[in-house]
Amino acid sequence: MSDHIVSSFDEELNEITDGLINMGALVLAALRSVEEILKNDDHNLAQKIIDNDLQINDLGQSIEIKAFNTLASRQPMAFDLRLVFSAVKMSLYLERCGDMCKGISKRILKGDLTEADSPNTIESLVTLTNRVYENLSLVLEDYAARTSEKSLEVWSSDNEIDSIYSDILMEILNNIKSKPEAIEALVPLFFIARYLERVGDQATNIAEVTHFIVTGEVLTDEKEIQIENETTF
Predict the structure, then answer these.
(1) pLDDT at 112
(2) What number of other Cβ atoms are within 10 A of residue 139's Cβ?
(3) How many Å apart are CA 34 and CA 192, to the nearest integer?
(4) What is the DSSP string of 169-227?
(5) CA nearest neighbour of 228 among 141, 159, 138, 145
(6) Rounded to an integer, what distance in angstroms lies between the CA atom of residue 126 and that of residue 27?
(7) Rounded CA gap, 25 and 52, in Å?
(8) Span 41-82, pLDDT tens digits
(9) What is the mean pLDDT of residues 2-14?
(10) Mind listing the pLDDT tens digit for each residue in 79-114?
(11) Domains contained in the chain, CATH given
(12) Exposure winner among 57, 151, 202, 216, fewest CB in 10 A?
């Protein structure tokens, strides 16, 4: 980021950037906690995720206010305009990620993962959590470094998460067919998988925003085809 004649403008931009990076770190921490509660059915940690979501929401609101104030008072242009304007979108996407983690925690608090008697599905959910965490981490690294290469990779590989998600749903359906008496314990796993898949969608959205901030280009389906062609060996 280039320095401006008015140093306070740089400070405002840095505050917005740092706020989003901190917000992303909180969401990543929540995802790591989701992994732990899936492995250990830890209800105390699930409640902690729910409680900590307020911090994510507050930070998101603070970023939005700073962004709007900067737009109104500084009238930024070019890269600065993209950075400030996109901050509102990014804070919303990250807030939704936090909401999904909270939703997973609420589902777990309402039941007992062990009652589902489906260790393979739990393992698959942990795998999905790790994949989603990796994608979100990569796009946030890109945002912090003002690069877009990792974001392009995440954006073009979203179908991998969709595939894992589809496999999990099929596995749950098969379990319900073979163990209809366990349906009440198995159904919440549907929602957990859906929440994780939606976090993956938000990571893709953040990848699009990051690419736009850095390059000024809007990703399109044609761009995805080009990326896939370039990475085919």
Answers:
(1) 75
(2) 29
(3) 10
(4) HHHHHHHHHH-GGGHHHHHHHHHHHHHHHHHHHHHHHHHHHHHHHHHSPPP-HHHHHHH
(5) 159
(6) 16
(7) 12
(8) 999 999 999 999 999 999 999 999 999 998 888 777 888 889
(9) 70
(10) 888 999 899 999 999 999 999 999 999 999 987 788
(11) 7-230 (1.20.58.220)
(12) 216
Tokens of 63: 């970023």
The tokens for 140 are 């946030």
Tokens, residue 37:
């509660």
Tell me the backbone φ, ψ of residue 219, rounded to 5 degrees.
-70, 135
Residue identified by tokens 């379990």 is 175
Distances (CA, A) of 117 to 70, 130, 175, 185: 53, 22, 9, 8
Global pTM exceeds 0.85: yes
Q: What are the tokens at 54?
A: 């307020």
Residues in the chain: 233
